[in-house]
Design brief:
single chain; alpha/beta; MutS, DNA mismatch repair protein, domain I; Nucleotidyltransferase, domain 5; MutS, DNA mismatch repair protein, Chain A, domain 3; 6 domains; seven-stranded mixed beta sheet
Amino acid sequence: MAKEKQTGEAKKLTPMMQQYMAVKEQNPDAILFYRLGDFYEMFFEDAKVASRELELTLTGRDCGLPERAPMCGVPFHSAESYIARLIQKGYKVAICEQMEDPATAKGLVKRDVIRKITSGTLLESTMLDEKRNNFICAIQWDDTYGAGLCFCDISTGQTQAIEMFGGGLAGAVISELARFEPREAVLSPKAMEQEEVITFLQKRLSCQIERGEEQDFTEEAGRQWMGKHFENTPQLQEDTEGRPMLIGAVGGLMAYLHQTQKNDLRQINRLEVYTKAQFMGLDPAARRNLELCQVMRSGEKKGSLLWVLDYTRTAMGGRLLRQWLEKPLVNAAQIALRQNAVQALLGDRPRRDGVLEGLRGVFDLERLISRVVYGSANCRDLRSLWQTACHIPQVKEHLEGFGGSQYLKELWEEIDCLEDVADLIDRAISEEPPFSLREGNLLREGFDEKIDQLRDLLKGGKGTLAAIEQRERERTGIPKLKVSYNKVFGYYIEISKSYADMAPEDYTRRQTLTGSERFITPELKELESQMLSAGEQLTALEYQLFCKVRDKVAMQAHRIQRTARAVAQLDALCSFALAAEKNGYVMPQVDYSGVLDIREGRHPVVEKMLEDQLFVPNDTYMDQGDDRVSIITGPNMAGKSTYMRQVALIVVMAQCGSFVPAKSAHVGICDQVFTRVGASDDLTRGQSTFMVEMSEVADILQKATHRSLLILDEIGRGTSTYDGMAIARAVLEYTASKKTLGCKTLFATHYHELKELESQVSGVKNYNVVVKKRGDDITFLRKIVPGGADDSYGIQVAKLAGLPDSVIQRAKQVLQSLLEQAPQQKTEGRKKASQPEAPEGQMTLGGAMGEEVLEKLRKLEPDTLSPIEGLGLLYELCKLAKEC
């Protein structure tokens, strides 16, 4: 009955509203922007939503029903800003345009949706972050064969795909999603059943999810789409052979894009197939904790590694630099290519400055050509493309002189100066074109003879009006006679009431006003017809010719995209060079040795944030032999976490091809970097802080290999002391043992008992952060030295944090009481362990002289000694020891 009622009401709607409802039924999930004249209008529920979200006045319109239809609208020429706000709030927008000229249409103007705008299909520069890709992805899933993922940024045409299989598939897919951070995802029916993946997309990435059709994700459908979009090269055939999940994901994504964009999407013409083995593994926790591209708390770029390294001059280079940081390399030869290019750019500053100066004039070629191919580019976009083409020759000229870098030579060969494209645009497009393509004045004078003729007619017509006005004043003797124009009446002669009786017989009265009369003449009517026709012809012809010019530029998309990719790479390499020059970085030695030897390493972000302080550098040596695991002890706030992150960031930078903040560095390639830093809970999933910690540790131990680098901070602190200590020790033994893992591990802890592992487990070394103590006050020296710390200085750190003095004093009393209550045998056992008997035959310190040496050592506070004082004391102790 309800359906019959709705059908009956629909029949009562006006023809226009019936058309609206028919289009809306085909796009129920989107807010429909329905074109009416110069406005996009919204009706019924869409109007209510848009009114609320965009703060628009909600009005009404007669629709044939007893109640007026709720209605609101926005001007079509400023619709982008309103659409952007709706997309930002998670809505979709369907653009319904007039498909024929209202002036020539018979009856109701035909309308249809020309595009559906979603968060993952944005093309407009005003809606996009210029230095960040906007990916949409598709996921194909099969419990037997694995998963296929395809990522595409339609604003640049960049498309990448990967196939995954084996154990821990959901975790592997999530890591890849974290790398690309898509804003929209199209999932096959099987993929929609993966709750862990769905949760990550929605909760962590705020990603919109669409359910795809099974038939779109088949291998056959994928092959058909690949044949339409991507050149069927032998390399692509080899890369996709035997990967049905990957091909299915490509098919599912391309089907969705064509359904929503209703365009041939020619800018998507290059598919990059990659594997996990090509890049360093960085799971979501590692990306978050290392703050590669944004800081954890605010999500801002400032304070991240990207913020430190980004000196790019172009939007394309900025996006690529982010991708390089998200995907560090594991191939030493590829890393060396980048390093040598950076070294060459550093070594020839005049040429590099010439390249950078050229890059300043380069607009976003990738997104410009995508809009050109898509058909949404306006005259200003083409002018930006022209300006870019004018600067590219300068870039190429200065790039040619760099020697010693094969990479830079290849980029020089890839860059096309696009002289023919620049010439076409400059001959055709006005230097200062309007924003709208329907306002005229799009094309240069002299580009087309017919356009020039129509313009001359319009200019002559205006001169003719002035001549007519002067002639009629003289003929009639009416001094203030005016010839004017408005959209309602066209051209007319206006005479004040006092002279109205003097109007000649050939004047036909058209309108009476309070103080004047308006007339028309046969001459004005004929002139009006000619001029109005010329204006309409000119506007239509200019638009038609502009589209032809735009299509000719679109035909060169492959050349322009290839040049854009080369320029982006050059810009990213220049950014690495500038960062190295400005921050004092050095080129690391990168190989497969497994050694990590960093001399005077620095944290790239922390040292940049310190304005009036010097950063204290630290050495690091680790390998896959006797120095696999470093146990780091010391108080909170002393710099343990900073040091460990610093080591990881230097490894990431080195494998990206960047120079690093150190005096020297030798980096053995790591296949994965894992971090477990800080305390957090996940209440939405019913997990406590300790549960989250243990889940992350379990995930690390399952996925890490002997070539991985682990950053583990305070494992086991979320539970009781003995449970936590037992877990921490077991984890350490597991990571250190070559039988289980045997990988490089930095392990910060307050469990000082774990220092015993240095003498019990092969490959473990103790390190601590030096603290200077004077009475109850401590000073953090930020220096990592061999050996373990004997105190965590927790009460002193609490005092520095500003706890009330009464709390500090009470804490000291409680601590003293706990120490006194400790079992005597435990204390004696510790003393015995710390002072072992000398083996037989070994010389010991004895007698008065020996006691004097021991007494001096007991009173010694090495942290407070200057180098000169230390050498003097050492000389004195050596002299006493010889006398013992």
